[in-house]
Amino acid sequence: QVQLVESGGGLVQAGGSLRLSCAASGRTFSNYAMGWFRQAPGKEREFVAAVSWNGRSTYYADSVKGRFTISRDNAKNTVYLQMHTLKPEDTAVYYCAADRTPWRVVVTTTSPAYDYWGQGTQVTVSS
Q: pLDDT, tens digit, for every residue of 72-84?
């Protein structure tokens, strides 16, 4: 059984930074791309960032490009989301997710491509 456990969320002022972590267990972490998604109250879940299985490719939503950085440490079975210059509109529950297809060549941004999800961590950015 795959488990994904996020941590690092919290309350921060606009312009501040946070680093989210997602610890994975239950299958060979290094074989699968990982993604971060978020869902704000009353809105649909949206893609934030993704990293390929080997860490060489990353992809970001336009809304976070230049402010967020996704990375992974396969030795620690952990994926990170470093967030800088946070804005109130970044307020959401952030979820990490694991790709269902190993060694995917092109990083995917669509939810159905991910088969395991964490429980989410709340990020609140005050103005």
A: 999 999 999 999 9
